[in-house]
């Protein structure tokens, strides 16, 4: 069977679909948020004690991890792999799965906050590293301890306002 020339033409934007991301065990992002919160607390400590280079380096690593989660998806984050390999087998099945879009959006918000701190830190504003880490820590702590994801709530607010999700069709049961 050969492809006709029409098959090789790019599809209009309306017909292109993003690859489906599988639903997540909601305990996975909470596990990742706990690790992130601890590391962000270390960044704050380093920034407060004058170890500004170490704080900047660690915040850069965390920014890279947020980038991974934002672009590859929350379900493909390295912390998610740790959760799937070592934690989830020891737990019962989750009560329900959650859509991967809100946690992935939240990773993007974490990326924005941490990259801002990194850029300002590289520009000579050392205090921005600690402040950025402290802001991100609050969000990670709320997610890890209280299961309240600020980025997810922002995502849902933007969807309800019609700012996100335009032109996408809901797929029932999937």
Automatic annotation (TrEMBL):
<feature type="domain" description="DUF4395">
    <location>
        <begin position="25"/>
        <end position="160"/>
    </location>
</feature>
<keyword id="KW-0472">Membrane</keyword>
<dbReference type="Pfam" id="PF14340">
    <property type="entry name" value="DUF4395"/>
</dbReference>
<dbReference type="InterPro" id="IPR025508">
    <property type="entry name" value="DUF4395"/>
</dbReference>
<feature type="transmembrane region" description="Helical">
    <location>
        <begin position="31"/>
        <end position="48"/>
    </location>
</feature>
<keyword id="KW-1133">Transmembrane helix</keyword>
<keyword id="KW-0812">Transmembrane</keyword>
<feature type="compositionally biased region" description="Low complexity">
    <location>
        <begin position="1"/>
        <end position="13"/>
    </location>
</feature>
<protein>
    <submittedName>
        <fullName>DUF4395 domain-containing protein</fullName>
    </submittedName>
</protein>
<feature type="region of interest" description="Disordered">
    <location>
        <begin position="1"/>
        <end position="27"/>
    </location>
</feature>
<feature type="transmembrane region" description="Helical">
    <location>
        <begin position="131"/>
        <end position="158"/>
    </location>
</feature>
<feature type="transmembrane region" description="Helical">
    <location>
        <begin position="54"/>
        <end position="74"/>
    </location>
</feature>
<feature type="transmembrane region" description="Helical">
    <location>
        <begin position="105"/>
        <end position="125"/>
    </location>
</feature>
């Amino acid at each position: 069977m050969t492809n006709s020339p029409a098959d090789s033409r790019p599809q209009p934007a309306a017909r292109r679909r993003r690859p489906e991301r599988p639903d997540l065990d909601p305990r996975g992002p909470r596990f990742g948020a706990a690790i992130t919160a601890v590391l962000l607390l270390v960044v704050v400590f380093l920034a407060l004690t004058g170890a500004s280079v170490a704080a900047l380096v660690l915040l850069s690593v965390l920014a890279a991890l947020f980038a991974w989660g934002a672009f590859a998806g929350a379900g493909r984050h390295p912390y998610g792999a740790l959760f799937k390999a070592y934690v989830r087998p020891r737990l019962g099945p989750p009560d329900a799965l959650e859509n991967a879009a809100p946690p992935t959006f939240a990773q993007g918000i974490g990326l924005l906050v941490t990259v801002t701190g990194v850029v300002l830190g590289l520009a000579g504003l050392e205090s921005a590293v600690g402040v950025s880490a402290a802001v991100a820590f609050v969000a990670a702590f709320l997610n890890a301890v209280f299961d309240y994801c600020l980025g997810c709530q922002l995502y849902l607010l933007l969807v309800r306002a019609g700012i996100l999700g335009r032109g996408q069709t809901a797929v029932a049961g999937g």
